[in-house]
Specification:
Cyclic Phosphodiesterase, Chain: A; globular; 5-stranded antiparallel beta sheet; alpha+beta; 4-stranded antiparallel beta sheet
Amino acid sequence: MKPLRTFIAVNVSQDTCRVAGRLIKQLAAVDDGVRTVQNQNLHITLKFLGEVLVEETPAICNAVERACESLSSFEISCGGLGAFPEQDRPRTLWLGVHQGQQEMRALQHRVDQETQQLGYSGENRLYVPHLTLARIRHFQGDPEKLQQLFDLYNPGPLTETSVTEIITYASFMERGLPRYEVLGRTKLK
């Protein structure tokens, strides 16, 4: 059986998806080289595991359960346009997490620790919780238009999300677009 491209994530509220959707449309209009994320695929990744054998998925879901067993649900707010590696050389454009950043980092750290026990590599950089909106391979557009969006959305409208569950997903490519399938759900207290 073919391995599954797997990741662990938090979904965001409909309000956050609406704000992100407006920004995604504006980003797409800046340059043809901007590849935007589909609204139904918006999430905050906690851990990307890569190619995983199907028979390993129950152990991964159990690791997520262990990571979350003593954690309570919490609130986050999202807003502000950011970029990796930096604003002057954007490759990934994202909506950042403001309120709840420490809680997201603690959650990501626990998930990271539990999946390391299964042999997956750990994260050695500071985790920056964010909602990926678009990726840029070769920007050919007007940098000033992109800068206007950075200015307009910083801090931008802040939206609220209740983090109540962690989802383990498999990702499949269909006609050049990703489709996500839930492998497991873990509720927070």
